[in-house]
Every structure is written in C-alpha cells, then in structure tokens.
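User: I'm putting together a teaching handout on how sequence relates to shape, and I'd like one worked example. Could you take DUF2924 domain-containing protein from Sneathiella chungangensis, show the sequence you're using, and then write out its predicted structure as tokens right after it?

Assistant: Happy to. First the sequence, then the structure tokens directly below it.
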Amino acid sequence: MANISSECQLSRDNLIDAWIEAYSGPPPKGLSTRLLRYAIHYNRQAKEYGGLRKSTLRQLGRYVPAPHKTSPAIETPTATAKPMPGTRLVREWRGRTHMVDVRSDGFLYEGKSFGSLSEVARTITGARWSGPRFFGL
C-alpha cells in the first residue's frame, strides 16, 4: 500500500485516475484535490484493514436520518395530449370570459384560427404564456 506522503506527491490527474480505480467511476464534479487525496487514502486503508467496524457503522447510522418519502412541494403536471376536437375551453381573464374551440387542425378563438393554445393565450394576455397552463390543462 502506498503511504499518504507518496499520495501527496500525485498530480490532480493522477489522483483522478486513482479515484476511478478505487471507486469504479469518476469523482464528483468540484471535488477538491485535498478531498480526493483523503478519499483515496481512506479507500486504501479500508481495503488493507477492513474498513469500519459494524458497531461504528451502526453508531454513524444513528446520526443519518433515514430516507423518507415526501410529496414534492410543487407537483409537476403530467404531459397531456391536445384536447379532443369539439371541446370548448373557457377562461376568464381580467373580467372577460374567453372561449376557445378545439378543432382537428388547431384552435378557433373569436373567429380566427390558431395553431397552438400558446398563440391564443398570447393574443388574450399580450404576453408569452404556456397555452395549456393558461387554460388549466
């Protein structure tokens, strides 16, 4: 086993190669050279001496919270298909009710054809909106 003083002499590129050999993959991005040295040396010591005792691992486990499932703070809506032709979408915006008819070739709003709901939402609001989000889809 190489001693730590010889590992202190290794260049960063050599340390990365040693990490890949020790951990079977590249180091995390942004890992400092100092931490690379410590991790490689620890890995070599663990291989030579057997690593931490089970009692030590249990003790450390008490300080690490168990992973638990939580629901996300914001749920991402699932991707939805275009509404079926013949569907009428209704949205109230700034005191006015807007109705959009879904057609097989696009959308009809106030007698004009649109290729996407986002175009309709832009016409209504004057700003770039996600059409499906604007209409609550």
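A couple of points you could highlight for students: DSSP finds six helices and four strands in the chain. The helical segments are 4-8, 12-23, 33-49, 54-61, 117-125, 131-134.
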